[in-house]
Amino acid sequence: MNAKRKDYLSWDEYFMGIAMLSGMRSKDPNTQVGCCIVSQDNKILSMGYNGLPNGCSDDEYPWAREGDDPLETKYVYAVHSELNAILNYGGGSLKGAKIYVSLFPCNECAKAIIQAGIKEVIYDCDKYEDTASVIASKRMMDSAGVRYYQYHRTGREVKIKL
Ligand SMILES: O=c1ccn([C@H]2C[C@H](O)[C@@H](COP(=O)(O)O)O2)c(=O)[nH]1
Ligand SMILES: [Zn+2]
């Protein structure tokens, strides 16, 4: 019984799993986004999820998508998962890193990803692919030499009893 286990998680499963788990911290009732930034040699550098800025209470700010008053929607307040992960990183440079993210990054996150020097985006869902935001995001990443590819789902279920 000294043979090594064969059903261990692949790197992609591991990092996308952590991105998805991070997204479960989000209070957004409609879309929970999580991400995990990883060095070229597979060390985890940072994680993030979509949420409010520090000091802004989850109970006091709106989570609505629509409203007559934009100030009563989440869009003007929520910090996106990717930006949170980039800003949370305390270790210096993210040059050459990869980011695993459960939703394709919007145009604003794409700008932050590019400027931080992240070179690879591995995403799961691309549900906003037809929006100007995501089209612009892909255009900027193409120009900046940031590669992006969709995570290949393996169908593996990971059960954790908490
Ligand atoms: O790049 C992105 C794009 C979006 N998010 C967050 C921002 C919001 O909290 C949700 C999107 O909500 P919808 O109800 O689907 O419009 O996702 C992000 O973290 N990163
Ligand atoms: Zn974004």
TrEMBL record:
Keywords: Hydrolase, Metal-binding, Nucleotide biosynthesis, Zinc. One of its GO terms (molecular function) is dCMP deaminase activity. Zn(2+) binds at residues 80, 106, 109. Residues 10-148 form the CMP/dCMP-type deaminase domain. GO terms for biological process: nucleotide biosynthetic process; pyrimidine nucleotide metabolic process. Its cofactor is Zn(2+). InterPro entries: CMP_dCMP_dom, Cytidine_deaminase-like, dCMP_deaminase, dCMP_deaminase-rel, Deoxycytidylate_deaminase_dom. This is Cytidine deaminase. It comes from Sellimonas catena.
